[in-house]
Specification:
alpha/beta, 38% helix, 11 strands
Amino acid sequence: MSTPAYKRVILKLSGEALVGEVGYGIDPVVLEDLALQIKTARDAGVEIAIVVGGGNIFRGLAASAKGMERAQADYIGMLATVMNALAIQDTLEKAGVFTRVMSAIEMKDVAEPYIRRRAIRHLEKGRTVIFAAGTGNPYFTTDTTAALRALEIGADCIMKATKVDGVYDDDPHLNSEAVKFDELTYMDVLRRGLKVMDSTAVSLCMDNAMPIIVFNINTDGNIVKALSGERVGTIVQGGQ
């Protein structure tokens, strides 16, 4: 890996990005590739914290739409993120990457409680920190968690790994003529309702000038390329 462009980053992983080719749950091939790239970045001195979603196991909004009480559905979704975090931790440690899982909901037998100063200290000691259970509160997405944690730990940017290679003006899976953006401002995203992150997360990033890089996790080497400063996907910044 060439000289890193960033010292400390939040890697936001959607639960769906972990599905890979298996269709549901977690694809071990995706985790192994993720671990290899994170190890390469860690060896180059990049401090990485991960925020992971739970949509591959349970989606709170979907369950709420079908009649489940929203707060209850969101708590179930938070527990799904813990399952993903533990799977990521296992794969990372098998690859030789020291990790800590920190949960916003206390579950001391499997994860540390989230404490900002402790998280920063773990990063300084070369450990990869995995933030689980969202913010610990219903009605907040893991996108908002990523923005909040990025600001709390002093990250240089948020890298959002998805199943598409950037931000488009329409769903590229449904519209073959959808146009991909190389760069957007925060206000572009908010005004046009683009599916980058939810509006709360984008507003937090805008108010604090936190760049967001959106890229495809399934493209070989994209995490390392983004950390090296290569243009991958779409970058959201500026224009507050």
